[in-house]
Amino acid sequence: MDNETRAIMHGLNPFAPGAGRPPKDLAGREHELEIMDRIISRTKAGYTSRGLVYSGLRGMGKTVLLLRMRDMVINRGLLAIRMEATTDSGHDYAAIFEGISKAVLKQRDEGLRDRLLAVLRHIDSISANIGIIQATLKPGAEDETPSSDSFRLEMMVEELCTELKHDGSGLFLFIDEFQEMPAELMGTIIGLQHAMGQDGLPFYVIAAGLPNLPGVLTKSRSYAERLFEYRKIGRLPENETRDCYVKTISRVSRFEDAALDRLVELSQGYPYFIQAYGSAAFEAADSSPIPRSAVGAGEPVARAALDNGLYESRWQRARPSEREYMRAMASVGKDTCSSAEVAEKLHRPVPEVARARKGIIEAGLAYSPERGFIAFTVPGMADYIRRTGPLSEQTYDESEP
C-alpha cells in the first residue's frame, strides 16, 4: 500500500476511542435501544412507563447509550434534556432549566412550541413569589425545606407535561453520573418521576451512573426502587465483542481471523477497550484485510493511550494517602476486596485508613459493592497499578473526576 492510499485508509478509521465519543455502531446494546423505542411509542400513544436507570463501571458505554437514546427521543419529535450531574446543586438546577428552555425552542411543531413557551413565561412570572409561597408552608424541619428552585422545577415539569400529553409528546430528562447529584435535587427529581407517573403525565428520568447508583437512589427515596427499570451495563460477551469489531470496520475493511481473535482477547468485552485497540490496529495497518501483525504493532500504542487517558489521570486525582490505599487494593489481587484485606496490606487497623477509603469513593475512583467491601470503578485499574507502579509522589490534581 502506497503512502497516499495508506493516508486515505487511516482517514477512514471508524473507531472512536475517548470518553463519551459515539462509535459508528452501538453493537451489543440493541435490547436497550428497543426498550427506549418502546417507551417512546407508548408515550406517543398516550401511555406512561417507568424511567430507566443504568449502572456499571466506567468505560462500559453508558454515556454513549444515553446520547443515542436522547437522539431517538428528539428524532421522534419529543423533548429531551441531557445533563451530567455534579456535586453543585445550583449548577445542576441551572443546567436543567437551560436544557428545558433549549428543548422547547427546538420544538418543530409551532403550535405546541407556542403553548410551551407560554408555560415558561407563566412560571417565570411567578418565580419571584415562590419564596413567599414557600414561607407560608411552614415545614416542620428546616433541613426539609424545599428550595425555590425545587418549587419552580416541579411547577414547570407538571405544566409542560400537561401540554405535551395533549400532543402525544413527553419530556425526557437524561442524567449522566446521577450518583453525584446533591441529595435535595436528586430527591426532587425522584419525587417528580413518582408524582408525574401517578398523574399519568409523560415525564421520564433516564439516568446512568456507577454500580452503587441504585442504592443511592433508594437511600434518597425508599420508593425509588419501584419507579425505575434498573439495568446493569457490563462488558460484552465474546460473540458480541467480535460482532462489534466486524460491524465497525465493515464499511472500509475487515480483520483477518487471527487479528480478530487477538482483538477480542485484548479488549475483554470492555467497550472503551474495543475502541482503543481497534483504532490502534487500524492505524498500524498497511494492507487490507488487516493482519494479526497490525494488531500486535498497535497493542503498545493502545495500552499507552489507556494508561495516559484512563488510568494515570485518575491516579493523579487521588491524594498520596489515597494512592497508597489504591496500591494496597491492587496488591490484594481480586476485583472486589474487603476493607480488612486492604488494611492488612497497609499494616494498619481499618479505622486508621477509613478516611482514605472514603476519599477514593467520593472521587469516583472506587465504590462499595456491599458493606465492608470496595472495588475500582475503572476496569483494569488494579492491573495498571501493579504493571506500572505509579509513584505516590505525583502531582495531586484536584479537578473533578
UniProtKB/TrEMBL annotation:
The lineage of its organism: Bacteria, Bacillati, Actinomycetota, Actinomycetes, Bifidobacteriales. Residues 26-186 form the Orc1-like AAA ATPase domain. InterPro entries: AAA_16, ExeA_AAA_ATPase_DNA-bind, P-loop_NTPase. It holds the Pfam family AAA_16. This is Exopolyphosphatase. Gene3D superfamilies: P-loop containing nucleotide triphosphate hydrolases (3.40.50.300).
